């Protein structure tokens, strides 16, 4: 009985990993001076309607890498 349970758990783990990996994206590494676009959908603006605001802003150059998923960008004041 124990071997059957272990086999069932291994199959379940393999299936769960396969289903997770379907939706997982590979992380893209950016370098310094690469140009990137910024998602603007979560910023509050003075626009009368959120639909009128730009969905993306940029491209902006990367100044330095802060962590694995964060980068410091050179964004103009205006």
Identify the notable features of this structure and list them briefly:
78 residues, alpha+beta, three-stranded antiparallel beta sheet, 1 helix, 28% helix
Shape, principal axes of CA atoms: elongated
Low-confidence stretches: none
Total number of β-strand segments? 3
User: How do the strands line up in the largest sheet?
Assistant: 1-2-3
Total count of domains:
1
Please characterize this protein's 3D structure.
By secondary structure, the chain is of the alpha+beta class. The protein has one domain. Helices cover 28% and strands 23% of the residues. The protein has one helix at 2-23; strands at residues 35-39, 56-65, 71-73. The protein has a 3-stranded antiparallel sheet, with no helix packed on it. The longest helix is centred in the first third of the chain and has 22 residues, at 2-23.
Secondary-structure topology with pairs:
Layout: H1 2-23, E1 35-39, E2 56-65, E3 71-73
Antiparallel strand pairs: 1-2, 2-3
């Amino acid at each position: 009985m124990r071997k059957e349970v272990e086999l069932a758990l291994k199959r379940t783990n393999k299936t769960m990993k396969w289903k997770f990996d379907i939706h997982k994206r590979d992380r893209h590494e950016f370098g310094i001076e690469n140009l990137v676009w910024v998602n603007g959908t979560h910023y509050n603006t003075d626009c009368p309607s959120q639909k009128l605001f730009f969905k993306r802003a940029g491209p902006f150059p990367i100044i330095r890498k802060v962590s694995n998923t964060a980068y410091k960008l050179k964004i103009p004041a205006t």
